[in-house]
Amino acid sequence: MSATTPETRERGFLDHVIYVLSENPITAIAFALFATIVLVAVFGPILAPYDPMESNAARALQPPSADHWFGTDNLGRDVFSRVLIATRLDLMISVAAVALSFVVGAAIGSAAGYWGGWIDAVTGRFVDTIMAFPLFVLAMGIVAAMGNTVENIIYATAIINLPFYARVARAEVRIRRNAGFAQAARLSGNTDIQVLAFHIFPNALPPMMVQISLNMGWAILNAAGLSFIGLGVRPPTAEWGIMVAEGANFVVSGEWWLAFFPGLALMTAVFAFNLLGDGLRDIFDPRQRT
Amino acid sequence: MGPRTKLVLYRTLQALPALVGVVIVSFILTRMLPGDPAAYFAGPAATEASIAEIRATMGLDRSLPVQFLHYVQDLVVGDLGNSLSTGQPVVEELTRRLPASLELTLTALLLSCAIALPLGIAAAVHQGSWIDHACRGLVTAGVSLPTFFTGIVLVYVFYYLLGWAPSPLGRLDFVYLSPPEVTGFYVIDALLDGDVETARGALSQLVLPATTLALFTLAPLARMARAAMLQALSSDYVRTARAAGLGEGQVVLGYAFQNAMLPVVTTLGMVFSFMLGANVLVEKVFSWPGIGSYAVEALVVSDYAAVQGFVLAMAILFVLLNLAIDIIYTLVDPRTREG
Amino acid sequence: MFLDVQDLSVSFSTRRGTVDAVRGVSFSLAKGETLGIVGESGSGKSVSSYAVMRILERSGRIAGGRITFDGIDLTAMSDREMRELRGREISMVFQNPRAALNPIRKVGHQIEDVLRRHNRATRSTAKAKAIEALRAVRIADPEARYDAYPFELSGGMCQRVVIAIALACDPRLLIADEPTTGLDVTTQKVVMDLLAELTKSRGMSSILITHDLGLAAEYCDKIVVMKDGAVVEAGDPKALFADPRHAYTRRLIRATPRPGAEVGDLLEPPAPSPVRPVPGAPLLQVRNLRKVFGRGASESVAVDGISFVIREGETLGLVGESGCGKSTTSAMIMRLLDPTGGEILLDGRPLTDTPAAKFSRDPRRGSLQMVFQDATDSINPRFTARQAIADPIRRLTDERPAGRVEELAAQVGLPLTLLDRFPHQLSGGQKARVGIARALASRPRLLILDEPTAALDVSIQAIVLNLLAELRAKLGVSYLFVSHDLHVVRLLCDRVIVMREGRVVEEGTAEAVMRAPSDPYTRSLLDATPMPPAAIAATPALAKAAE
Fold first, then answer.
1. Which residues of chain B neighbour C104 with C-beta distances below 8 Å?
2. Are residues C398 and C350 in the same domain?
3. Would residue B198 count as lying in a domain?
4. Does the beta carbon of C360 lie under 8 angstroms from any beta carbon of chain A?
């Protein structure tokens, strides 16, 4: 291959990315937010001003101040530090879950879309059965049945995300299965697996990237929702959902900061991923702009 | 039998595999408990003998297919087992609490449709205008809001700060008596009873949780309505209608809107799925005595029969809702009447 | 003048700034006249007519000029007044008729909507009048069709309904925008004849927008030729075809396939046609080939026992309308699809020994290649031209892609500087060259050309056809040329077979089939293709015969 190939491609793509970012500053904000969240997840323990586990009855339930930006909770722990620390756990759960369901979903969806027939029938039935449940409720059932642990939260979230990837992959592969370039690839001596892997899948990937980003937000929401109702993560672990749940008891008496800041962090993270999804859609597929 | 009736029957039959799948998965979930399910169901204070007894009564000592058969037999007669914590049959508990959940969910659905559909349509018709931008902003913010967080913020603002809303504890303040049960929906039952005061009390309790839930479902609905409407408006048949001089009202509402509603009806399934899930969280925040908070309470005390009964009940409800959507779609779109 | 368009400009605001789609276009039309606006894709011909109707999409606007209709300036009218006019005074027929109708509304009701909108009917008379409108466009059993939904009607039938909607209120001007695109040639003729007759009998004026010079010449009193948003030439069709003033018009007329012309004659200036190789030994034999899709009640026979032979260096034309089984046949020969019955032999050895799913590893894979209908769709969007051409070299040959890709590019006339571009950075003609280069990469002995020019403008078609003829002369490869258009097929083919409903209805040398078709279906196919008068003018031999 000529050395100029990737370069031309990179430059064109980069120009396009810059164009989309400048055209839509919100996408730029989303990228910045995303970067911040990743940084906090990585360096959270270094950045946290207090030990997130250290309780101190003397400073319990203090409103936000210069010392405690987000106030302190009922045990006197620093809410800001706890929110920072929780980022890693929340992100870890959702990234693991999404990665898991992407790999499995993309594989079975692509196979179903490409070969059709009984593979499609079987995987279709499987995916339909998952979708026959209200997804969050299914996740509750799975965690309740498999045991109340963080790994099981990940598995449950992965299972309820699976149908989305499987369906997107199936649809995107299916519309390209008999496209001219796929036929041409067969005539060029590619086997079915090669046609699928080198020709069809790379073209089906961009819409799936969008799905990944949008689902990331949803996965975070689900995981936090599960811990909000007392599944998975247990106190005193710092996690956004459980912090909101604990703080909820104090809202009616006016101590709003306990629930507000972790909730805000959660919302910001989900918001960033959703915006990112929209931005990626613009970058990968300008025609789908809505 | 008319072709429509036939088609409706056909759709109903098509829902059966989903129902079978739901039952199988529920069965697997009840048998998947780590360790010995009998020990779980017997509770922490059980003796060796009582565990064995429970194992025998639950049929856990028999082969899986036989167990499944018993499970299905029990389901058919409406037996979901007894709750560990209350000792009551799970089915009774669920039926008693179901109207509360339905009242909340349906109110929220009506509320979000009433806002989302006009908003999405207006955004599409006036693409690029302020209303379009407002719609896009609301949609992106809406899907990012954790329901339980929205609920808590609303409680803080409207109950603690402003004092407009009653305390977030259940369907009716204790100063009122629950209305005689007709539909199970307090607001309607109170009105039927002619008790406007109680109806108002019930409604004021309902407003915040319903708004919370509606805010959550508003976003996907508005997004879909806008996208479908945009697509319909740029279609060839709308161009034909415009070229024939049809008025803007007829083009937008008669031609574009009717076509745009088809994909929106399809997404309703997904919206229901989100809604039934979010319902659990909202019920917990507002101590709403529905089946969601029942499940959450059961989870806390590891009352598995109750949790799995709840999961199954929700799934069946969801399958039925999807069936209703399918039937509506079939009746609305002439193209589905082929074959 | 009844309709007078002066100095019309239309611009669109896009992501890349303002695009002037129409720049200073003027034309006029008298009562009862038919005006043809001819041009290739992107010439601004449709946009001009949308501007007249004032139905430009949101991003487009009339940037300048005047449109006077019966003394009224349309550009100065309010949207409300314009809506009164549309459908009642001026109406429009679109391409792709099925999409042009509301999919979930009965066609009868769609006609009623227009009638009632313009007060031509009341609630009680609407149904009768709608049925009347359906009858006027020759729809059989209009009472029953009134209740039909668009998906229940054929494409031709849908177009009649669109015409019924357009003519329901007796407008005085009808604009037809590529009204036959997407329809089969035989349906095309029926629809055009119907349109011509209805407008004539009602004394209407009409504008026909088309890319097809032949169609415009046959049905129009006046022709305007557009290119890149501007009018390059206008006038009476006979004069315009006999003596085109503008170089572009000349090139367009030349490039239109016509009886008597050789493939080299399509170029401007005409070039000598490449020599045709003398057919040698039989290369491919097809015997009693059958393909049945589905099973039981839903069974449908796509190919019903066809047989033919292609010799070394020979070009066979396979002609038929959509759904005749020609694509299924070529997919089976290419070993992308297994036949239900019959034999396909290459050099006397059955190809069906290796099932289609395994054929990519068969040593004969490289001998059988294909040039696809839509060059855009047939190149992987994530591959550069170089990667696309290199793929078969790497997989099917022992050669090194590096030098071979350049060699192939030179062979098909693709500038080497374009090799590192992606498909979306190439023009239609350039993509066609990439597709041909890729097909030749494995040094095939038989190349199936599946409507290789159907998606191309006529001037590019001429160039691609000449390229294919040249390559054949140079490489001695055999072609199976699949097309719906006998006039195009004839330019390259020695022999032609005509298919209909899965069977061969006619077979013979191209000349014989064209001159004296034995099957009535072949004749209707030939008659349905409109021919510009230049077909005669540009071919001295025929011109003499005509005198």
1. 258-259, 262, 332-335
2. yes
3. yes
4. yes
